[in-house]
């Protein structure tokens, strides 16, 4: 089952429901919804989330995760909000993972073990600053 995305995530979600309609010989009806995840209301079941839709008649959809078969888009927001950021960095001698947990950087390379900082962390912090000033999302491989 998919995880509920955090509020503010921009996603396209596909839900699949069984149907006996002759218009759906497969026996399933798929619904595709694109929009922004909203805060849950008090009393909403925990396996559901609310999102805006492009429909004028139904501007808010409550999505039940049990029926979600696909979810794409900026669904990383929840992890980013949890204070953990993680990047894959290509180094000269291999690939490393640079992680920021509650504003503390770490890297999986040998250099970090000895010096507690390394070129990979510098690379990622520079990239983050650049993206921050441009107001853009970070492009590249991101593990969470
Ligand atoms: Zn490193």
Structural account:
Mean pLDDT is 81; it is low at 136-144. The chain contains 3 helices and 8 strands. With 144 residues, it is an alpha+beta fold. Helices cover 19% and strands 39% of the residues. The structure holds zinc ion. Residues 96, 107, 109, 111-112, 118, 120 line the site of zinc ion.
Spell out the key features of this protein.
39% strand, binds zinc ion, elongated, 144 residues, 5-stranded antiparallel β-sheet, single chain, alpha+beta, disordered C terminus, 3-stranded antiparallel β-sheet, 8 strands, 2 domains
Which ligands occur here? zinc ion
Q: Nearest-angstrom radius of gyration?
A: 20 Å
The assigned structural class equals alpha+beta
Order of helices and strands: EEEEEHEEEHH
Number of helices: 3
Strand order of the largest sheet: 4-3-2-1-5
Mean pLDDT: 81
Measured as a percent range, the helix fraction is 10-25%
Quick overview:
This protein is α+β, with helices and mostly antiparallel strands and 144 residues long. It is 19% helix and 39% strand.
Mind sketching the topology for me?
Layout: E1 10-18, E2 28-38, E3 48-52, E4 60-64, E5 68-73, H1 77-81, E6 84-91, E7 94-101, E8 104-107, H2 110-115, H3 119-134
Antiparallel strand pairs: 1-2, 1-5, 2-3, 3-4, 6-7, 7-8
The structure holds zinc ion.
Zinc ion binds next to helix 2.
């Amino acid at each position: 089952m998919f995880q509920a995305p955090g509020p503010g995530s921009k996603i396209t979600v596909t839900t699949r429901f069984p149907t006996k309609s002759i218009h759906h010989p497969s026996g399933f009806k798929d619904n595709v919804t694109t929009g922004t995840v909203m805060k849950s209301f008090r009393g909403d079941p925990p396996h559901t989330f609310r999102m805006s839709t492009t429909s004028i008649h139904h501007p808010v959809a409550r999505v039940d995760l049990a029926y979600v078969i696909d979810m794409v888009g900026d669904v990383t927001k929840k992890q980013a909000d949890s204070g953990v950021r993680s990047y894959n960095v290509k180094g000269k001698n291999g690939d490393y993972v640079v992680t920021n947990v509650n504003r503390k950087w770490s890297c999986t390379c040998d250099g970090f073990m000895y010096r507690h900082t390394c070129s990979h962390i510098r690379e990622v912090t520079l990239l983050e600053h650049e993206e921050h000033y441009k107001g853009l999302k970070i492009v590249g491989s991101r593990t969470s």
